[in-house]
Amino acid sequence: MNISDPFSPEELTTALRRLRPGKSPSLDSIFPGFILHARPPLKSWICDFLTSCMRQLNIPKIWRRTLIVAIPKQEKPLGGPKSYRPISLLCVPFKILERLIYARVEPIIDPLLPQEQAGFRRGRSTVDQVTLLT
Fold this sequence. Notes:
The protein has about 130 residues and is mainly α. It is built from 5 helices and 2 strands; from the N terminus they run H-H-H-E-E-H-H. The protein has a two-stranded antiparallel ribbon. The longest helix has 18 residues, at about 90-110. The model has no long low-confidence stretch (mean pLDDT about 90).
């Protein structure tokens, strides 16, 4: 498979398995459940649209923005700014595109990375990194 091949319905299904229903939408107001429960014709259109975005290296402007929401920390007084932690809500279709691209790139890149690199790698943690260095 070539990295720039059209995304298949199977790839979309795999990417959607990691999408959690019930999460909040971002600025585009698209809920994860909308895509999770879509019928095959819409999922086919989504594959075509995300393939077009990847091939043209162009994504909708709204996907480049994020909605930042302050979430109160547990057992903290609500009066001060240190009582909140910010979270960024990304657009759901953008998350799906990221997962589709990552699934294609990861098998190519992972073998090229040094053994000492543990961050952001499947099946690795910082504990692995510490044991390699000692």
